[in-house]
Amino acid sequence: MSVELKLDGDKLTAYLTGDIDHHTAAGMRAEIDRALRQNSIKILTLDFSGVTFMDSSGIGLVMGRQKLACELGGRCRVADPPAYISKVMKISGIGRLCEIVDTRAPVRTGSHRAGGEEQ
Amino acid sequence: MKKCINEMKLSFSAVSENEAFSRACVSSFVALLDPYISELAELKTAVSEAVTNCIVHAYRGQPGGVVWIHMRLYSDRRVYIKIRDKGCGIADIDRAMQPLFTTAPEEERAGLGFAVMESFTDQLRVRSSRQRGTTVVMEKTLSEKEKDGYSDLQDTAAGGRKLRAGTSLC
Predict the structure, then answer these.
(1) CA-based nearest residue in chain B for residue A68
(2) Least CB-packed of A23, A38, B10, B26 within 10 Å?
(3) At a CB cut-off of 8 Å and minimum separation 6, what does B1 contact?
(4) pLDDT in tens, B32-69
(5) HSE of B7, CA atoms in CB hemisphere, 13 A
(6) ipTM above 0.85, yes or no
(7) CB distance from A97 to chain B under 8 Å?
């Protein structure tokens, strides 16, 4: 598990990698929140493309970051969750709370999206 | 017809490092049935929810807790998983099973554990008694393999078969 942060003006992207569970979420949360508080962020993007596993702890992670980003005057979005993670997100209805984007879509030519079981 | 063809029991300390360990164990045991990767991901997620509940809720502030997992694989490709703790128990199971209900919002628990277990398995049963603990039983029947026969099981155990690549992980 790790999180890599990239700051671009008022945009912060957190690249999450590895498994997200109750054990690993706490560390990710602390790192993202520190960067959120230290900078004036309008858009926080949680990039899930490198996540290998996620249970509902990941939903808590998104909900919490969305809440904090809002409190600090910004918003949070989720990018590129693999198919099996999308399922957990769908159950949670997190899509109603924050935008889920596919940043890789425009550069793709075929329909062979990684994690392609998603309809 | 519904014969138990394999069984395992596991017990481990209720510490959060073991969430990943328990998933790995369940995953490699279920792999003997040569599941689709999506089915395996669903079972791993359901198990992770149940085990996390034991660690976060059952033994809250109570060191030395133990989590037990008992698994059986049946000849009809049914997977039986029982996850048990001897923790504080659940005061109101119906309420606990309601989506978004959580007793630990400060830890950013989403209150979706049971909803995920329910969605990712065919059957979920929860028994609990105060101060004695909670038992969660989940069952899921894996989809049929392209070619039949459980003779493949030996091959699988020997590492001869790979997981079906019907779906890709990422």
Answers:
(1) B108
(2) A38
(3) B75, B76
(4) 999 999 999 999 999 999 999 999 999 998 899 999 99
(5) 5
(6) no
(7) no
